[in-house]
Design goal:
The strands form two sheets. Strands 1-4 form a two-stranded parallel sheet. Helix 2 packs across helix 6, helix 2 packs across helix 10 and helix 7 packs antiparallel against helix 10. 22% of the residues are buried. It has ten helices and four strands. The longest helix is centred in the middle third of the chain and has 38 residues. Helix content is 70%, strand content 4%. The chain is mainly alpha-helical and 274 residues long.
Length: 274
């Protein structure tokens, strides 16, 4: 009997360290368990990712002259210029220009806008007689300077958004904070984009375009130009061209957003199911 009791006591002594190790393992697992991101930081991350995606899409389109040669055919801009350029009250014989000269004129305006509106007054075109003529009138130059300031502000905001996304990904990684699944993230953001697009369609894209001009640009600066008084407006077939550019911008931004969210998901994987 004494021998049996001694064996039981010995086995209990052996089991005590094992229990301690099990408790230590549970504590360690609890410390390394990943936390789920809270709604406010998640909303900030998604908003910054969307803005960063729009900025990157804008930069890509700008590098490709906003696909103007494609829209020249799709939107029949050439026929539009041939119709309205001869009616211009202030500039003669722009209708003499060929397609290459028109594409070069648009590219020059786009580059000037990205260069803080420098060189707009020096832009010219050459008519059929070989005479060089000034492309833009003073009110057009003032408007494009306003556009350049707006673009510069939005690009700075885009850069800040890119830095914010990068910083938040580092923060998620270091704090071991997880995100919801990729499908849920993309679904939430996509739903917001779709709702905004639907609202624009319900109100009317042209109305939204004009209302933004009213809100953004100074009251004493002309921003609406009839085709008969503006080669800039004629060259761009405004606002038709801007609609095509906006559609591609949003589509490209959604693709880039999906890539950003996929990257975020790899950095901060969701916790395993309990």
């Amino acid at each position: 009997m004494a021998t049996i009791i001694a064996r039981i006591v010995a086995s209990t002594r052996v089991l005590r360290p094992l229990r301690g190790r099990g408790s230590l393992s549970r504590v360690t697992a609890k410390r390394h368990r990943r936390k789920t991101i809270r709604p406010a930081p998640l909303a900030l991350l998604l908003g910054a990712a969307l803005l960063a995606s729009l900025y990157l899409a804008w930069r890509l389109l700008a590098a490709a002259d906003f696909l103007y040669p494609l829209w020249y055919d799709v939107a029949e801009i050439g026929a539009h210029i041939d119709e309205f350029a001869p009616r211009n009250r202030y500039r003669d014989r722009f209708g003499d220009t060929d397609r290459a000269a028109r594409e070069a004129a648009f590219a020059a305006i786009a580059r000037a806008i990205r260069d803080d509106a420098r060189g707009l007054a020096a832009l010219t075109y050459t008519d059929a007689t070989g005479r060089s003529r000034t492309l833009l009138r003073p009110p057009e130059i003032v408007h494009l300077q306003d556009v350049a300031r707006l673009v510069s502000t939005l690009e700075r905001a885009g850069l800040i958004a890119c830095a914010l996304v990068a910083g938040m990904l580092v923060w998620l990684r270091r704090r071991r904070i997880s995100l919801p699944g990729f499908g849920r993230l993309l679904g939430w953001t996509g739903a917001g984009v779709a709702a905004t697009a639907l609202l624009v369609l319900v109100i009317g894209a042209r109305k939204v375009f004009y209302q933004f001009h009213v809100w953004i640009f100074p009251d004493d600066h002309q921003w609406f130009f009839y085709y008969q008084e503006s080669l800039m407006s004629t060259l761009m077939k405004a606002p038709v061209l801007f609609g095509y550019i906006a559609a591609v911008l949003v589509a490209l931004a959604v693709v880039l957003l999906a890539a950003l969210l996929a990257l975020a998901g790899r950095v901060a994987r969701p916790p395993p199911a309990a």
